[in-house]
């Protein structure tokens, strides 16, 4: 469906996109995520034709898009700077693209009604846009983008403005809707929870390049680097040297999975793999701040030497702040990453 080859965009001396290759298959949902300034929006805008390329090419269904303006690319865009038309009602907003394509009035109304049903706003066609909540406006924007049955739907921070609980609900609805319609989607978000819930494949960007791509499970289980691990919210990272099935670290010997690569590395221990026991077992730590997370508690552990550790504890077995405990590590929850630098 979409093939981006070596796409490069420069703003003055700054390279916002650095020879990026990306493919999106038919019916696939791909989410691009990364920190602010990593090039996500530039990538999306380059695919849409809103941002000229300094190098590389964009193909849709095998056709080079270089000479095609935005409105001839067959894309559905839901971008933050493409707000709804405030003076038109909901139905006219949804039908806008269809009107541009010369679809007759009766057919436009029928399709707009169908799409509003689909996004959970049945019968909202005559409502004023200004009278809708933020979440409802997002749904209308989505219906508008979907109306012309685009080859590829492109979403930039689709749920950006909404509060957390609404986002969590909408993301599930979106995934179900896209699955039902067989929509191919390229979305950009800085919220990793959203990306992981929505995507078949996530693409993590750093400084205009792809740092890693894979299914949400692959990326979560095996981050490619300390950068990706940190971006996913993992903080238990330490320099290490692996020999056999253990790594030497400032936290002492940490067991690692069989067949881990040997030698210098950066070691990640997921918080679920930090086991808290009596003070005589393993690494001696003092319990610091405890943060309630709903289904578990995150506990900061301070060893005498080296960086602090985060542990995930059950609600009932959380140690008290100030307790002295012993820490051991579960090899199934450790990941050997390439050495820093
Ligand atoms: N029109 C522009 N002129 C100059 N520099 C730009 C322009 N647009 C983007 N940049 C720069 O290009 C880099 C990538 O920006 P981009 O907006 O693609 O990042 P992003 O990952 O989408 O960030 P965010 O999550 O903050 O939206 C940044 O350093 C940004 O400052």
UniProtKB/TrEMBL annotation:
- Provide this UniProt record's keywords sorted from A to Z: ATP-binding, Nucleotide-binding, Transport
Does the record bear Repeat in its keywords? no
Pfam families, from UniProt?
A: ABC_tran, TOBE_2
Record domain ABC transporter: where: 2-232
The coiled-coil segments of this chain are none
> InterPro entries attached here?
AAA+_ATPase, ABC_SmlMolc_Importer, ABC_transporter-like_ATP-bd, ABC_transporter-like_CS, Mo/tungstate-bd_C_term_dom, P-loop_NTPase, Transp-assoc_OB_typ2
Record's superkingdom? Answer: Bacteria
Any one Gene Ontology MF annotation carried by this entry is: ATP binding
Put simply, this protein is called ABC transporter ATP-binding protein
């Amino acid at each position: 469906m979409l093939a981006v080859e070596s796409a490069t965009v420069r703003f003055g001396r700054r390279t916002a996109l650095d020879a990026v290759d990306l493919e999106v298959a038919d019916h696939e949902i791909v989410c691009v995520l990364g920190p602010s300034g990593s090039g996500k929006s530039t990538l999306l805008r380059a695919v849409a034709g809103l941002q000229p390329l300094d190098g590389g090419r964009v193909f849709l269904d095998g056709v080079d898009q270089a000479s095609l303006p935005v409105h001839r690319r067959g894309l559905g865009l839901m971008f933050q700077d493409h707000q709804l038309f405030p003076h038109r009602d909901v139905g006219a907003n949804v039908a806008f693209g269809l009107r541009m394509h010369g679809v007759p009035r009766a057919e436009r109304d029928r399709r707009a009604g169908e799409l509003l049903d689909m996004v959970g706003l049945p019968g909202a066609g005559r409502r004023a846009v200004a009278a809708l909540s933020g979440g409802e406006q997002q749904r209308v924007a989505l219906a508008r983008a979907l109306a012309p049955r685009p080859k590829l739907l492109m979403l930039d921070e689709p749920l950006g403005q909404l509060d957390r609980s609404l986002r969590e609900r909408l993301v599930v609805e979106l995934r179900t809707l896209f699955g039902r319609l067989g929509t191919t989607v390229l979305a950009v978000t800085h919220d990793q929870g959203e990306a992981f819930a929505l995507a078949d494949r996530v693409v993590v960007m750093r400084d205009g390049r792809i740092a890693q791509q894979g299914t949400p499970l692959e990326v979560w289980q095996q981050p490619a680097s300390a950068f990706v691990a940190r971006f996913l919210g993992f903080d238990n990272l330490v320099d290490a040297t692996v020999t056999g099935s253990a790594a030497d670290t400032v936290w002492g010997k940490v067991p690692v999975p069989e067949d881990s690569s040997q030698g210098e590395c950066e070691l990640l221990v997921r918080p679920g793999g930090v086991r808290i026991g009596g003070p005589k077992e393993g690494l001696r730590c003092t319990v610091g701040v405890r943060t309630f997370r709903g289904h578990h508690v995150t506990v900061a552990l301070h060893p005498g030497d080296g960086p602090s550790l985060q542990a995930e504890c059950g609600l009932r077995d959380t140690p008290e702040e100030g307790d002295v405990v012993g820490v051991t590590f579960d090899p199934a929850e450790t990941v050997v990453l390439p050495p820093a630098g």
